[in-house]
Amino acid sequence: MSKENLVLQQNITKAKEGNQAAFRYLLDLYWLEVYSFLLKRVNNENEAEDIAIQAFSKAFDKISTFDENYTFKTWLITISKNVHIDLVRKKKISVATETTKDQEERVYLVVDENPTPEDKIIREQNLAKLLRDIRQLKPKYQEVIQLRYFQELSYKEIAQHTNEPMNNVKVKLLRAKKLLAEIIKKS
Questions:
Q1: Using an 8 Å Cβ cutoff, are 50 and 114 in contact?
Q2: Which of 78, 130, 138, 151 has the most CB within a 10 Å radius?
C-alpha cells in the first residue's frame, strides 16, 4: 500500500471515530474533484458548491457505512450524484405542480436553498431559546452560526472574517448545525 493510501485509510478510520481533523483532510483532499464533477453536471458554480457541501455532509453523516473494499473517491462521487438527482427530482415535482407558463418562469427565478433538516429545526426555534441553545456550543461553533445566520455572511466572507480556509468554514458550519440541532432536540 502506498504512503498516500495508508494516510487516506488512517483518516477514513479517524473520521469514522468522529475526528474533525480527519473530516477536514478528506474534504480538502476531495473537494475539488467532487465540485468539478458537479460543475460539469449543473454548469453553475454556486449550485455545484451547494450540492458538494450537501454531498460531503451526507457522506460524513454516513461515513460509518463506507466499505473499505471500495474507492473512497468513487463513494463520494456517487453520493454527490445521488444528492444532485434528488434535487433535480424535487425541482421537477415543484415545477410540475405549476400550471401556467408565467408561474413556471417564476419558479426558475426562485433560488432553491434546499434547507437541511437541521436548518428547519434551527429556524423553528423561539429566538430567546435559540440564543440560549447556541451558548451551549463551543465558542468556535457559536461564531460561525452567528456569522452565517445572524449576520448572513457568505462562506467566503466568514472565511475572511475568521482568517480560515473556506473548506474549514464549511466543515465547522456543518458540525455546528448538527450539534445545535441535537441540543434543540434534547431541550
A1: yes
A2: 130
For 56-101, the pLDDT digits (tens) are: 888 888 889 998 888 999 999 999 999 998 888 887 776 655 444 5
CA distance 136 to 97: 42
DSSP, collapsed to helix, strand or coil, labels residue 136 as coil
pLDDT interval class at 7 (50, 70, 90): very high
108 to each of 2, 34, 92, 111, 112, how far by Cα in Å?
Answer: 48, 25, 11, 8, 9
* Domains of the chain in sequence order: 1-111 (1.10.1740.10), 115-187 (1.10.10.10)
Assessment of whether the complete model's pTM goes beyond 0.85: no
